[in-house]
């Protein structure tokens, strides 16, 4: 490891997070900065503290197993006025399918269809195109159907660090 101190590492991390649109893992940061765990942890803590000060418009988010620089939620209205992009909303079918995959992964298309009560081919294709889900293997049963799971893009889109952070779902068994 070279002699990068935590102050310089914090500045470098800030610059790296500023230019990337994907979460950077601590392993990737260590690789780029050539620092050890202690310096990296100290640098991240320093940057986190700096971003937490009153008046800062950004924060560090821990999503999809990495770090991402993001606008503070209460300032999102200003950013929306600047960006004014057309929302890329998912259809109800795509949301239902995505929820099933997120909570039951890995899951097959047939299992998704059985839960929804309708075919999910179109919704699955949409989610694959948007990189929200991916093929994660084949189920070891007759026909070896494809198994689907969520992606880092899914975690990033919903601001989650892992699928364990998904809200708990209560199922009403009474049918009401």
Write a concise synopsis of the structure shown.
By secondary structure, the protein is α+β, with helices and mostly antiparallel strands. The protein is built from eight helices and five strands; from the N terminus they run H-H-H-E-E-H-H-E-H-H-E-E-H.
Task: Write up what this structure looks like.
There is one protein chain. The protein has 176 residues and is of the alpha+beta class. It has helices at residues 6-19, 26-33, 37-52, 76-83, 92-104, 109-116, 121-129, 152-158, and strands at residues 58-63, 66-71, 107-108, 133-138, 146-150. A three-stranded antiparallel beta sheet has the order 3-5-4. Strands 1-2 form a two-stranded antiparallel sheet.
Average per-residue pLDDT, rounded, comes to 89
Write down how many β-strands occur, each being a DSSP E stretch of 2 or more residues.
Answer: 5
Based on secondary structure, the structural category is: alpha+beta
Q: Could you state the order of secondary-structure elements as H and E? A: HHHEEHHEHHEEH
- Main β-sheet, spatial strand arrangement: 3-5-4
Helix content: 40-55%
Please compute the radius of gyration using only Cα atoms.
20 Å
């Amino acid at each position: 490891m070279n002699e990068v101190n935590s102050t310089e590492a914090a500045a470098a991390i800030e610059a790296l997070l500023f230019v990337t649109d994907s979460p950077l893992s601590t392993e990737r940061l260590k690789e780029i900065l050539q620092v050890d765990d202690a310096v990296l942890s100290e640098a991240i803590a320093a940057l986190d503290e700096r971003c937490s000060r009153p008046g800062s418009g950004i924060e560090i988010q821990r999503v999809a197993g990495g770090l991402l620089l993001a606008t503070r939620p209460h300032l999102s209205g200003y950013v929306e006025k600047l960006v004014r992009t057309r929302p890329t909303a998912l259809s109800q079918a795509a949301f239902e399918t995505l929820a099933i995959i997120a909570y039951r992964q890995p899951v097959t298309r047939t299992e998704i269809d059985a839960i929804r009560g309708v075919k999910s081919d179109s919704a699955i294709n949409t989610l694959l195109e948007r990189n929200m889900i991916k093929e994660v293997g084949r189920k070891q049963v007759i026909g070896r159907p494809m198994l689907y799971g969520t992606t880092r893009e899914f975690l990033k889109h919903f601001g989650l660090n892992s699928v364990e952070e998904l809200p708990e779902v209560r199922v009403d068994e009474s049918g009401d």
